Amino acid sequence: FPAELPPLPARSALSAAEILRYSRQLVLPELGVRGQLRLARSSVLVVGCGGLGCPLAQYLAAAGVGRLGLVDHDVVETSNLQRQVLHGEARRGRPKARSAAAALRRLNSAVQYVPYRGALRPRSALRLVRQYDIVADCSDNVPTRYLVSDACVLAGKPLVSGSALRLEGQLAVYNYRGGPCYRCLFPEPPPPDTVTNCADGGVLGVVTGIIGCMQALEVLKIASGMGSSFGGYMLMFDALEGRFRNIKLRPRKADCAVCGDNPSVTCLQDYEAFCGSSATDKCRALRLLPSGDRVSVQQYKELLDARVPHVLLDVRPQVEAEICRLQHALHIPLRSLEEKDEQALQRLQKRICEEKQRTDDQTPLPVYVVCKLGNDSQKAVKILQELPAEEFGSVLAKDIKGGLMAWATKIDSTFPQY
Amino acid sequence: ESFPLSVLVHCFYFRGGAELLFDGVKKHQVTLPCQPEPWDIRNLLKWIKQNLLKERPELFLQGESVRPGILVLINEADWELMGELDYKLQDQDNVLFISTLHGG
Ligand SMILES: [Zn+2]
């Protein structure tokens, strides 16, 4: 990360060009020249240049914030473009922090942009956060959320935090005017297998857009001196119901590990260990099965070519099977297997029976299980291994490592990736 | 004296959706039966486990409370302000369970 940044100069007046540019907001008595001058002297650190960070940075740049720090370790991918609206098609493969800075510079060249091409790390986070006035958490994972929050408490900076998934979003302002921090609300991280990210759960771009814009609004209110409405409150947005809820949060907790009266967290820690999950992996690769119970996509392709009798079981949710599928696969969602859905099990039994007629019936019939990435398929194999042999005959369940996305990258490049 | 309570239990639960845990239904207007001791959140959680949770209660509960990462709101306020597990439910109360989101 670059060296210390010089402080933004204090200004006593706006230029004629600035007056013209910001005229529509200058005439608002709540902002006025005084608020605009405060904005011009404010610096905001944006952690994550994705679905939340893009709209947030766009509105902050347009409004004339003095300096924007842009942190992101990732590069622009095609599946980002649906919601990460600063990155265009031509930017694919480029670092997001630089892509965002380039797009913002076209919008407002008077703002200083400082792209940081790397993940926020415990080693460097505090030094970085100390150089900014306000921090916006636009990240996409649990360890980073704890890291950003702790860094803001230790550096004494307000944190405007947004998150979104599927058709819902949340916003809160932490460590602001004596209010609670993220840890006051969530002293313990959630168990890793209860956390869903946007890659797995999906998200509508306009939902991250709404929450990112709400974050930008609260940053602008804090920076210009209006003050945030969300200190001690959380906003919940349900896009399907079209409903916003304002929830009154607990006050700062005296026994909070970081902002409490006797804090045990006085320097930044290993947040990936604390949360049991990675801050940079897009997908968690589970390892539930021994390697003997798994095959690679190459191995599966070979036995498919050799016409080895088997059943291919696709356990993805219905909505994903409608996107793309292997035609010879039997589709039964993992959930139906977990619920021991009778109709689903009968379909499986029937297919196994049909396939067994092609064999000598002496050896167990292989059942290969596939999903998108190879996590759910392992869970399904475990369920299949428990099925009663008297009903299903002897079968040998294995999962296909890496799932259909590995099939698309290694075997069949025409198979859609999502 | 005790009366059945009508309580609105609203679950914002993700990870495979509320559908996985609560059969896809977000809003549950539940009528809690009469019982000798007053209904509190501790009892409500037990009742939910027995009556609403279809499977894998560990994704929702931990011990006698909710698991980390779920925020409980009573009438749109953090349950911490209301006495947490000891809050005594009133007729027409609104209880929300929200799993925090981390995506962006
Ligand atoms: Zn705290």
TrEMBL record, chain A:
Pfam families found in the cross-reference section: Rhodanese, ThiF
EC class: transferase
Residues covered by the Rhodanese domain: 306-416
Intrachain S-S bonds: 275-283
Record field: catalytic activity: [molybdopterin-synthase sulfur-carrier protein]-C-terminal Gly-Gly + ATP + H(+) = [molybdopterin-synthase sulfur-carrier protein]-C-terminal Gly-Gly-AMP + diphosphate; [molybdopterin-synthase sulfur-carrier protein]-C-terminal Gly-Gly-AMP + S-sulfanyl-L-cysteinyl-[cysteine desulfurase] + AH2 = [molybdopterin-synthase sulfur-carrier protein]-C-terminal-Gly-aminoethanethioate + L-cysteinyl-[cysteine desulfurase] + A + AMP + 2 H(+)
UniProt keyword annotation of Nucleotide-binding present: yes
Any single GO BP term: tRNA wobble position uridine thiolation
Entry's cofactor comment: Binds 1 zinc ion per subunit.
Annotated binding of Zn(2+), by residue: 181, 184, 256, 259
Gene Ontology CC annotations of this record: cytosol
Function: Plays a central role in 2-thiolation of mcm(5)S(2)U at tRNA wobble positions of cytosolic tRNA(Lys), tRNA(Glu) and tRNA(Gln). Also essential during biosynthesis of the molybdenum cofactor. Acts by mediating the C-terminal thiocarboxylation of sulfur carriers URM1 and MOCS2A. Its N-terminus first activates URM1 and MOCS2A as acyl-adenylates (-COAMP), then the persulfide sulfur on the catalytic cysteine is transferred to URM1 and MOCS2A to form thiocarboxylation (-COSH) of their C-terminus.
Full protein name: Adenylyltransferase and sulfurtransferase MOCS3
Organism: Serinus canaria (Island canary)
Source organism phylogeny: Eukaryota, Metazoa, Chordata, Craniata, Vertebrata
From TrEMBL, chain B:
Pfam families xrefs: Urm1
1-thioglycine, modified sites: 104
Cross-link (Glycyl lysine isopeptide (Gly-Lys) (interchain with K-? in acceptor proteins)): 104
GO MF annotations in UniProt: sulfur carrier activity
Pathway per the UniProt entry: tRNA modification; 5-methoxycarbonylmethyl-2-thiouridine-tRNA biosynthesis
Keyword field contains Transferase: no
Primary location class: cytoplasm
GO biological process: protein urmylation; tRNA thio-modification; tRNA wobble uridine modification
Signal peptide span: none
Post-translational modification note: C-terminal thiocarboxylation occurs in 2 steps, it is first acyl-adenylated (-COAMP) via the hesA/moeB/thiF part of MOCS3, then thiocarboxylated (-COSH) via the rhodanese domain of MOCS3.
UniProt keyword terms in alphabetical order: Cytoplasm, Isopeptide bond, tRNA processing, Ubl conjugation pathway
Subcellular location: Cytoplasm
Keyword Flavoprotein assigned: no
Any one Gene Ontology cellular component term annotated for this protein: cytosol
Record InterPro entries: Beta-grasp_dom_sf, Mopterin_synth/thiamin_S_b, Urm1
Function: Acts as a sulfur carrier required for 2-thiolation of mcm(5)S(2)U at tRNA wobble positions of cytosolic tRNA(Lys), tRNA(Glu) and tRNA(Gln). Serves as sulfur donor in tRNA 2-thiolation reaction by being thiocarboxylated (-COSH) at its C-terminus by MOCS3. The sulfur is then transferred to tRNA to form 2-thiolation of mcm(5)S(2)U. Also acts as a ubiquitin-like protein (UBL) that is covalently conjugated via an isopeptide bond to lysine residues of target proteins.
Similarity comment: family membership: Belongs to the URM1 family.
PANTHER family: RURM1 PROTEIN
Annotated protein name in UniProt: Ubiquitin-related modifier 1
Organism: Serinus canaria (Island canary)
